Amino acid sequence: MAVPVAVAVGKAADPLVERLAARVRALRLGPSTDPQAEMGPLISGEHRAKVASYVDLGVREGAELVVDGRRVSLQGWEDGFFLGGSLFDRVTPAMRIYQDEIFGPVLGVVRCADLDAALALIEANRFGNGAAVFTRSGAAARAFGQRVQAGMVGVNVPIPVPVAFHSFGGWKQSLFGDHAMHGPEGVRFYTRPKTVTSRWPRSADGGGEGGFAMPTFG
To answer: E strands of 80-119, at which residues?
Structure first.
C-alpha cells in the first residue's frame, strides 16, 4: 500500500478503532538514549512539518481525526523533531492521505463491507508492497493469501517483512528494477552465474564410450 492503512471489515471497525486509538495514545516517545522509548523523533524539522501538514490535510479532506499527535512536546527535548502518533478513521481512497506515502506516524482506517471489498481496494492501489490480514478464519486467510495483489503477505503478522533468507520486495509500483532487495534476489543482482558441467572417465587415457555425449541424465 502507499501509506500504512488499516482496512476494517464489517462490524469489526468500531472495536478496531477503539483499540488502535488506545494504543496510539499510549505510545512512548523519546530519544534513542531512552530504553523505554517506542518511537523516536523524525529525521528533520522540515520532515516533521511535512508529516504534520498531512494531518492538517486529512482533516480538510473530511477524515475523522481520532488521535492528534501534532502538539506533542517532550520536557527537556522541546526543540526535538518529535511528532506523536495520529489516527484517522473513515479514510477513503480519494483522499491524499490514502494515496501518498507519508513516512510518518500516521495511520488511516478505511472501512469495507466485506473481504471481497477489502481485496478490491488493495488491488486498485497502484502500490503493492505488503498487506496483512488478521483473522481466526483459515478460509479467509487462505483466500487473502491467494488473491491479494502484494509482494509480501502476512497472516496475523503486523508487518509482512520476510526474514533475511527471503527477499524483501513488493509488486506494481512498489518495485523498481527487476530484482527485490536482499535474500536470494539480492544475490542474483550482485552475481553473475557460471555453470560448470564435469565428467571424469574411469581410465587414465580417457577411454570409455559416451565421452563426447551431452550428460543429460545422472
So the answer is: 86-89, 106-112
The per-residue pLDDT for range 179-193, each reduced to its tens digit, is: 666 667 777 777 777
CA angle 170, 24, 38 (to 5 degrees): 75
Grid cell listed for 175? 518495485
C-beta of residue 25 within 8 angstroms of C-beta of residue 97: no
Q: Quote the CA–CA distance of 195 and 34 in Å, as a whole number.
A: 52
Start-to-end C-alpha separation, the chain: 47
Per residue in 157-211, pLDDT tens? 877 776 666 666 666 656 656 666 666 777 777 777 777 777 777 766 655 555 5
78-100 average pLDDT score: 95
* pTM, two decimal places: 0.76
Structural domain boundaries in the chain: 1-113, 127-193
Q: Is 102 exposed, middle or buried (0-12, 13-18, 19+ CB in 10 A)?
A: buried
Q: Give the span between the Cα atoms of 89 and 205, in whole angstroms.
A: 80
Determine phi and psi for 180, rounding to 5 degrees: -80, 180
Fold of the domain built from segment(s) 1-113: Aldehyde Dehydrogenase; Chain A, domain 2 (3.40.309)
